[in-house]
Amino acid sequence: MEQTSNPLHSARATDVVIIDAGVTNSHALLKNIPSQAAVHYLSPTGDGLEQIGDILSNYRNLKSVHLLAHGSSAQLQLGNSWVNPATLNHRAKQVQSWQAALSPTADIFLYGCHVASTVEGKAFVSDLATLTGADIAASDNLTGDATQGGDWTLEYQLGDLEPHRISQQLALSNYDQVLQVTVLNFNDPTPSLEPATTDVFRFQNVATVGGQSIDALVTVSNINNATLTNLDDNGSFPERFQPVIRHDGGANAISSIRFDFQLVQAGTTTPLAATNVFFSAQDVDGNGSANSVREFVEVINAETVFIDDPTFLELAASLAGGIRHRVINSSNVQSGIGTDDRYEIYSYLGDTVTNFSIVAGNDVGSANCSGASCPRQNSWTFDISDIQVIDFSDAPSTYGVPSHAGTAVTTLRLGTARDGDSGPIPSADALGDDNNGSDDEDGVTLAPLNASDTSYSIQASSLSVTNSTGGPATLHAWVDFDGNGTFDSDEYTSQPVQNGISSPDGALTWSGAGVSGMSGGTTTYARFRITTDGGINANTPGGFARDGEVEDHALAITTPVNPDIDNNFCQVSSDMMFILDKSGSVSLSERRLQRDAVMAMLNYLVDNNITSRVGIVRFDSTSATVIGYTDVTAANLPTFESALNTNYVNIGGGATNWEAGFQQAISLGVSPGSPDVVFFFADGNINSGGSPNDEALQFKQAGAHIYGIGIQSLDIDDFLDITDGSNTTQFDAALDNANSADYVEVNSYDDLADDMTSLLRSLCPPATNNPNVLLVKRITRVNGLTENGGTNLNVYVDDPSYEYDDNTLGSPAPTPLDTEYWPTPSTFLLGATNGGQTRPGDEVEYTIYFLSTGTSTAVGVQFCDKVPSFQTFVPDAFNAVPPAPSGGVGANRGIAVEYNGSLLSFTNDADGDTAQYYPPGSTLPAVCDNAPAQTEDNGAIVVNLGDLPQATGVGTPATSYGAVRFRARVK
């Protein structure tokens, strides 16, 4: 099927479908149109007959033309005007030119409500048949949705028409509207007074709806300073309602009369509703004398009331709760019953109308009305052809009904063209006012919306606007984030739109409390209104705007992905939540096996020094906490096992309520980081309570990853909604994909502990035996003093060429890994890397600081430090420091070790204590071979520090760090 809004050349086309712009949601009509049909759309801004002629000029030998438009008796809405018998007579030659495109046996199908429902309508069809030479079919009742009384049968036919597939497909289209705008015709020269009343008048046959004739009961009431000299002047424009009201109130007074209209079944008082009723007050003017009579009209309970721009009218204070306009100056006058738009009031009364009210009258100034100028004639029409193009909304009706006055070539619009509608068209897909076969609301390109979002933005580059009004306008926007069917004020944002600019000043951005309550996998709605009307604000997603356009869009809310687990999950303190199945399908032995699986995972965490907290809850038909978030330590393992036995294993179960389990887990906290991961164990599907999707969503929105653990009878499909939807991935140990997997398949309870440990092992690989000891060497004294010739030796020096003498982790990380566990470096790692000038005989003290930092204890630690050249080891440097208990009695002590809160001195001899000095020329132990940078043969100290546990925090434990000192004298 070819679709275009411009003339379409197609040698293959044998059938043409022409759709008027006023036919909304037309894409629903075209789903099954045959491929040999060409589809065209009439612009709302152009002449309808002229456009049809241009379209048909591109074809020859057509078998059929299908014309879809709003209709009423003897007329069709085509483009920017209505075509009626007078139009056909005036433009006969133009319509005759269509014959060049038609085959000798061509058929024309007119799909419009009630076109042939009257004698005049049948004559209209006959005239068209004569001009085109075609056989013609037209409707004499409602055309469209059967639930609204319509059908797709064209009851009135002239000629021998062939049954056509397009007609058959239209009937199968499930189109949910009717092609009708109700025109009220008050051409009743003798309206009758209703029995037993003095003020209710019946106008017969004002319209036909659903095949039933409608009368209008008009009640005249609230007469104030006025006389109704003529209920309806039929002398000119007999189809209009034209009351004549005389002012009786004198100077500086208001006169008025109220007219209440009730639509009823003909000959009865039974109310009937008319579809899409419009109203226009055509001739609201003055009497020509300065400061004298100014006419006014007030419309009550209408969907929309507005005036033209420019206008001679102004808004005035309401008299009866409606919207009142009056002529600005009494000297503004039209001759007779004029048609100048500047004197007109326009109104859309509603999509389903049974009654409405209008108040009319005169404001009289200080120049008193007298004589022939006092009676003023109103001229009211109820025909869409007399109304400016109005743009309506098409989101569901709960969102309110906005409307914007203007023209199709408006200076203020969204996208490439402005819509014009014959009424609001609420639809589930917000495409009700589609006029071109695809979504023609093209002013906004929506950004994706995720249920986990806490803010939402549409960039200015995604917003196409036109503003050539000469001044600034505003783009107003609402999104129904919480899906409650209304646009709330906290779901609103806006941006200015400057004159001559094609996008707003900035992005439309929503944040705060309004961006909440979203449900993934659902559809919500967004509304955009561009206008200069200052009455539009956060609280007016509905209502009238004097210019601009409205666009509604359906917006899908996607389900947030199940967040992948960070690679450093096991290197930081993480919280884990276990939700255990205790329903009646889980036996005692199976509850024990769930317990054993949890304990196996906790033991794994302890064995591999993985810092974490774990909380455990259980569920059956209800839920309870087994143990709140508790640190996982070796000391706490019995506490976990006891809680599992007491609060889980030894308690029987009932029905299976997954939602209860998640709700219990939520009660322990879902703020970001609590928990980081949820393990959900289940061996049976839900048979109690609701879906846990919303609760699972809360965890995912907070950043937690959910694993579905399907035991025995369950499979991956059972966990899609609570994990990652269609992207849910099964854990495979061979793929080592635990960080991104969402589901663990457990074929048997006997496999549960192994499968869960395998998952945890993939998440947190076993710690490798990778000890490491860091060394920092400094000069700490010269001649026993911490200052040498102005050089401070009692200061912290951060050597920029050495990664390991501070608690700042290097980036990129060096090898071996850096540390942040030194005792406070600025007070612990004291000393200089350059001790200043020395001379022969000066005594220099060296301090070597050490720290065990790795993944495990450093076993049997020894280190060797050679005495610098041109210096001599001082053998008795630390004789005054308390000796280590294992050293030789009376021997000199030239080595000191500060460790685990104690400072002890060690002998230089090989007498069994921790340290030893090797004089020059000695055979050094193998440990000294590991210091290739030290090539001196001037003696060395060797210290055996034994086993040093790895640091787990700053200065923790105290046995993970210390310092070794020795002194040497300059030769």
Automatic annotation (TrEMBL):
Cross-referenced Pfam families: DUF4347, GEVED, VWA
InterPro entries to which the protein is assigned, alphabetical: DUF11_rpt, DUF4347, ECM_Assembly_Org, GEVED, VWF_A, vWFA_dom_sf
SMART domains for this protein: VWA (SM00327)
SUPFAM superfamilies, sorted: vWA-like
Organism: Acaryochloris marina (strain MBIC 11017)
CDD domains cross-referenced by the UniProt entry: vWFA_subfamily_ECM
Protein name: VWFA domain-containing protein
Gene3D superfamilies to which the protein is assigned, alphabetical: von Willebrand factor, type A domain
Region (Disordered): 415-448
Domain called VWFA: residue spans: 575-763
Superkingdom: Bacteria
NCBIfam families: B_ant_repeat
